[in-house]
Amino acid sequence: MTRELDKILTRGVTEVIVEQDLRRMLETGKPLRLKEGFDPSRPDIHLGHVVSLRKLRQFQDLGHQVVLIVGDWTAQIGDPSGQSQMRTMLSAEEVRANAETYMKQFFKVVDREKTEVRWQSEWFGNFKLEDVISLTSKFTVAQMLARDDFSKRYAAGHPIGITELLYPLLQAYDSVMIESDVEFGGIDQKFNCLMGRELQQMMGQPPQQVFFTPLLVGTDGKMKMSKSLDNYIAVDDPPNDMYGKVMSLPDDLIMDYFELITDVSDEELSEYRKLLSAESINPMVLKKRLAGEIVKEFHDSEATQVAETHFSTVFQKRDLPDEIPELRIKVGSSPLDLSEILLNANLVKSKGEAKRLIDQKAVKIDGKTIVENIAEIKDGSIIKVGKRRFVKIINADKAD
Questions:
Q1: Which of 34, 140, 199, 392 could form a disulfide with 172 if both were Cys (CB 3.0 to 4.6 A apart)?
Q2: Count of domains for the chain
Q3: Residue 319's pLDDT is what?
């Protein structure tokens, strides 16, 4: 058990507060209440979220209880962690719709049967003004401004909403209400999690331990994985897309992804590091192994094999895939609105995204890079968007 705990407490871990205390708690064998909160401000989970979710699963497998906090109140405020401006507030309907999608993906990693789901509205729904005032009286403005993102915005003269100052207090109160033993989160949540420890002690509870995981760098190789930066790999991505995105990672991220997102043994990873350092292996070989492990985690072995074959055919051999979706439109002699075609073909989510991709020279028609939105398109043209998306144009006026 000691060796297993050592692995759980060291691999894919940035910091544990307080590690010695947590070790003692784990060694007693008593089931612990593990808190993980999420704000359903967006409906999708990406691999950046999976880093801490994998830790939760490891603790579940040791017999501990995960308590998932659905932040249906804090999501309407918006946590500004890492942001330089105020977040847009969401409606209760938007939050609930996002939460339903989020939880379906959450349970691809965490065991549903060993998870207790709690909604903040269970306790905040009955909050009165005196409750809010009582909660806010326990902390000072100076403490709030000690948080890095708040202090930077304050120094720069950027606005900080009163509602935003409430966010850490509400997250801390969640720990009190569920009697959290351990809270999990990315290192960017350090301030909020430590406030939970402090509030618990004020309310007569033992302070929760805090388990911080690293922030996964996105596919751009520079910034934290984020949907807003479009550098993410979603857990709901189709197998071919997921495989291709992993293969697009910069080589220097290979080992980080192996360590944080897979169960490949430490011994194997040590050998991989030696081979990479000695330049005695092509990084592409390891990246294929990595892509296969990740696709298999969220799909299955058969889908992994298909994705690997697809990648080899389309990208390494530079051939077109065997099956390309078709879009029937009227094709004449006049140029057409390419952004509208891409939207109708479900290759983009908006015309704005289509135009941005065109500007980035990420769209090709019959192998030719397109730089204008109005383009010449003919019957049978193959449109390629990015590295993995295709559509074949069929003239709707053409007889079958």
A1: 199
A2: 3
A3: 67
Question: Does 234 fall in a domain?
Answer: no
**Residue 218 covered by a domain:** no
Give the global pTM: 0.73
Q: Render pLDDT for 336-375 as a digit per residue (tens, 0 to 9).
A: 899 999 999 999 989 889 999 998 888 998 878 898 989 8
- Segment 209-229 mean pLDDT: 90
Q: Is residue 356 part of a domain?
A: yes
What does each C-alpha distance from 373 to 102, 357, 367 come to in angstroms? 35, 10, 16
Question: Which candidate, 368, 372, 365, places its Cα nearest to that of 327?
Answer: 365
Per the structure, the complete domain to which residue 347 belongs is given by 326-395
Q: Looking at the structure, do residues 18 and 38 belong to the same domain, yes or no? A: yes
